[in-house]
Every structure is written in structure tokens, then in C-alpha cells.
Amino acid sequence: MSRLAKETVGDVAKPAVNRRPPWSAKRRQWWWLLLGPCWLLYVPLWCAWALGQIYRDQYAAWERFFHLPAPGVVAAGLLLLGLCAVSRHRRLGLVAGLFLIWPLTIVLAYDNHWLSPRIPVSDSHPTNPLRLLDWNVWHGMGGWDNVLETLDRERPDILVLAEYTPSDPVHDQHHLESLNTLLLSWGWEVAHTFASGSMLIASRFPLLHIERPQLPSSDCVLVDFENDSGEPLRVLALDLPSGLRAHRDPLLRKVKALITNTQPDLVVGDFNAIRQATQLQPLPEGYRHAYDAAGSGWSYTWPVPVPVLAIDQCVIGRRIEPIDYTLGTGASDHRWQRFDFRLIRSKQISSARFFHADDD
Fold it and tell me: What's the mean pLDDT in 16-21?
């Protein structure tokens, strides 16, 4: 074979011998060691969340999926999208972006709204504005002095506390005495208070009538007040059980029936059920969520410091003219909810039939 032929054969053979994957391709292969497990985790999470959104809490089998927080699904999707971008897997990044559309829409446009609602002013000579503050204070585990400092800053006319009893019963009397001292320091002539289980209701208005409707494994108090102008006001305060073992829909049906039967002006408390629950959307006729009526911004209330579920509710009736609804963070694993409002017309409160929640 001639020298020229040998060189030609060598030149042809060289590329075949020296073929190696480029560095970018090798890097993509290494990224799969991280991307693969992330996709294997995210896809089942997204599917479970989607099933929860479809069936909500109507069926016990899907209820736990319904309580998967949409912000958590969004955060996981954004992380996956970022990994796809860094590793330059564009097609996978496009798929991750498509997965993000639904939960991101829920967070940005359904669970939360970002502009304050326009509130029409009543022409019926409304009474002076009142303030209600509702807060699960987590047994004072964030520091009872910090709780009192928050209350002193907000100074409500009506105060509803859940889990107000300290984790150590030795400090129970201290909690009550220090709270009473604080309320009197606001200029209240008398600190009208009522404790029921894990709940405490306090007001500068006399508690004219108190009922304790029976709800399974729950604290429930119905109170009639009369404000400075002699207008009656009825408040239903609730502390519903936590945990995911019990099916919530049957209990919320009883709460809904209780609202319909007793016609409170305000319903507040730690529902341990999110605002989009089947029995809370829609509410009984004439009722609406205070957040929808007068609130804006991040509406989730638990768990602090990164709240991702709206489980503390404030529901208002026809007689309430909303002014402002605000959520704030303090010394608890729950955010507090403050509601400023007016009573727009008087009504005679009839003695409604108080019923056991087990009644049909």
C-alpha cells in the first residue's frame, strides 16, 4: 500500500477513534442524577394536589390531598423549573412550566387578591365603627407578654382568643389576671369575659346572652352584645378540631346549619378548615368572607412564619358594613385577624332555636 493510501486511511479512522461526548452533554448526564429524583417526587405531589382540587373535601378519601398547600406545590415547581434551566434541559423546563400554571393561578388569582375591594358606604346612618380581633395564641408559647403587646397595639372592642390557656396550668391565673389588667388599661369600665374550653371572649360591651351549641370535639360559643348605640350584635366563635384524621365536611355541614339557624352577625375562629372548603364556598345566603369583602394580600394564616393555609376565618352577615380586614403576624403559629366594621341597621334578635349539632 502506498504512503498516500496509508495516510488517507489513518485520517478516516481518526475521528472514529477520538469520538467523545462534548462537555455539555456529559454535564447534562450528571444533572439527571438530581433531576430524575426531583421529577419522581414532584409529579406524584402535583397529581395528588390536583385530585384534591377536583374533589375537595367532599370525600374522606381525597380530603388529605385537598389540604396540600398550593404555595408548596408552586415552590416545588419553581425549584424544578430552576434546575431544568441551570442544566439546560429546555424541553423539561417547558413541561415544568406547564405544571406550574394551575397551582400558580390558584395562589395568585383564587386564594388571594391584591387590590383592596371597593366598599360602598351605607346611607342608613351607620353607627360608630367597631373592631374585632380573633387570634389563636398557641397557649402563649410564643411569649404571653408578646401576645399582650400585640393586643395592646390593636385594642379591639371585641376579643376572641383560641388556645388561650397556657401549656403549664400553673400560669393560668397569671394569663387571666394580666389580660384583665390590660383590658382595663384601655379605659374599659368592666372587662366582660367568658371562657369556654380553649376559648376566651372579652368585650367592653356586656355579654347579654351566652349559648354553647354542641359541636363534636369543638368549642363553640354564641354571644349577644349591645353596642354603645343600643344596637344588638350576635357573634358566633368557633375552635374546631385540628388534624387530618377526621373528615371535616360533616362537621362543617353542622357549622353551616348552625349559622343558618342562629343567624349570627359575625362568625370567627380557628376553623382548621381552609376557606375553599365545600361548606365554606358558598356560605349560607347573606354571608360572605370578611377577606373577600374588605381584605387583600396574602390571605393564608398558618403556619407562621410561612403561612400557606387559610384556616382562620371571619364570616360576616347582612347587618355588617365592612371597613377593613387585616391579617397580622405575632407570637403564635397562627396569624391574627382584625376586622373593622359598622352595624348598618338595627334588628330585633329573636330567641332562635339552639340545637344540638347532631340534630338533622
Answer: 52
